[in-house]
Design a protein that fits this description.
By secondary structure, the chain is α+β, with helices and mostly antiparallel strands. It is built from 5 helices and 10 strands.
């Protein structure tokens, strides 16, 4: 078999007479027949463009699906929210992004906020507001404080997924509607002084 090649064509010529390899030597042949041509396919440049879409996953503590869940960004915001809430029940949720108990409890708190739209849930990030939390004597997380109208602070406690009943009981006890002619009390005088001493609110 003899092979003829060009730039893009391979030609194979096959003998019809006796032709065979003997110990690596090729015997000559008289004539050839049956021309087979194989044309190599032309290669064309292929432009491909891949689009990678990266979805930003929301951080668990930033997930507040209910409109009555509000982030508190300063001591003054906390004071203002409590004073402007009137007779509405206010629950202050102290948490830390690195707290496993806070993360595990968060979905249930969101669920309870959805079931109690008349209550206001204020979220305080401990890592971002350590001075505020220390001034309010919050040292254990997750931690909750309940406030309402002229009564001011109703209760304070730490709660986890295992002790969620404590939170639900407090919500049931203090969640009933009430009306008071007196203005909302908000934080205690000692708490206001403590916040002022660390520069979280202005001194009067």
């Amino acid at each position: 078999i003899r092979v003829y090649s060009s730039s893009n064509t391979l030609r194979f010529k096959e003998s019809t007479r006796n032709s065979k390899d003997l110990w690596g030597k090729t015997k000559s042949v008289d004539y050839f027949s049956d021309l087979m041509i194989i044309r190599a396919p032309k290669l064309e440049a292929i432009n491909s463009q891949a689009t990678i879409s990266v979805m930003k996953q929301a951080k668990w503590w930033e997930d507040s699906p209910e409109p009555n869940m509000i982030d508190v960004n300063s001591g003054q915001e906390l004071v203002d929210h409590l004073l402007n809430a009137g007779d509405r029940l206010v629950i202050v949720d102290f948490y830390s992004p690195g707290c496993g108990g806070c993360k595990a409890l968060h979905p249930k708190i969101c669920q309870l906020a959805g079931l109690n739209q008349k209550a206001l849930f204020l979220k305080v990030n401990y890592d971002q507001h350590k001075k505020m939390c220390h001034a309010l004597h919050v040292h254990v997380l997750p931690f909750f404080r309940f406030y309402r109208g002229a009564e001011g602070r109703l209760c304070s406690f730490s709660c986890t997924n295992a002790t969620i009943k404590k939170f639900k009981d407090a919500l049931t006890k203090h969640g009933t509607e009430r009306c008071s002619l007196a203005p909302a009390k908000g934080l205690d005088e000692s708490e206001l002084l403590a916040l002022a001493s660390v520069g979280e609110i202005a001194r009067e």
